[in-house]
Amino acid sequence: MKSVIAACFDVYYYENYAKASCVVFQKDEEERILAEYNVLIDEINEYIPGQFYKRELPCILKLLDKVKENLDFIIVDSFVWLNDSKKGLGGYLYEALNCKTPVIGVAKTFFKDSTNYLEVYRGNSNKPLYVSAANLDLNYAAQFIKELNGEYRMPQVLKRVDQLSREA
């Protein structure tokens, strides 16, 4: 396997601020964390159903400014494409990065009418992860997520970034 440097992001919302976290890792025959980043955001947008990206995207972009590593791609906790005519958070992030940095979306819940994704089953879980991608072969993206470390449904690195965003 070719060596890859990727970053996964997650944002946790508190009452009047958010904490965005990022874990940068390298994956080849092994998998190791290279860096962890965090940023607190005081001004967060209101959550609007169906427009999650308007709240999350500014947080991710603010944190992405701190990342020093050259990334092969980014992993977000959402869909990249919801269907042929509608983008998810990952699609908006891909556009915000001038369509240069590939994005993998890993969603835990299915979005009604979604297309352009693959179901990935990990560990002994009967519940899939829904993987989508921009500027990256979808089969490669799904296999990459499937092969990440961790014996359960969620890869360890995605659990780590979630945990990091929730730490006070």
List low-pLDDT spans: none
- Overall shape: it is globular
Q: Mean pLDDT across all residues, rounded?
A: 94
Sequence of secondary-structure elements: EEEHEEEHEEEHH
Strand content: 25-35%
- How many discrete domains? 1
User: Helix- and strand-based class?
Assistant: alpha+beta
Strand order of the largest sheet: 3-2-1-4-7-9-8
For this structure, the CATH topology is archaeoglobus fulgidus dsm 4304 fold
Pfam families: Endonuclease_5
Keywords: Endonuclease, Hydrolase, Nuclease
GO molecular function: endonuclease activity
Organism: Clostridium carboxidivorans P7
In terms of topology, how is this protein built?
Blueprint: E1 4-13, E2 18-27, E3 31-41, H1 53-64, E4 73-76, E5 81-83, E6 86-87, H2 89-96, E7 103-107, E8 118-120, E9 129-134, H3 138-147, H4 156-166
Parallel strand pairs: 1-4, 4-7
Antiparallel strand pairs: 1-2, 2-3, 5-6, 7-9, 8-9
Structural summary, described in words:
A hairpin with a 2-residue loop joins strand 5 (81-83) and strand 6. The protein is α+β, with helices and mostly antiparallel strands and 168 residues long. The N and C termini lie far apart (37 Å). 37% of the residues are buried. The chain has a single domain (4-166), classed as archaeoglobus fulgidus dsm 4304 superfamily (archaeoglobus fulgidus dsm 4304 fold, 2-Layer Sandwich). Helix 1 (53-64) packs across helix 2. The strands form 2 sheets. The chain has a 7-stranded mixed sheet with strand order 3-2-1-4-7-9-8, with helices on both faces. A two-stranded antiparallel ribbon has the order 5-6. It has helices spanning 53-64, 89-96, 138-147, 156-166; strands spanning 4-13, 18-27, 31-41, 73-76, 81-83, 86-87, 103-107, 118-120, 129-134.
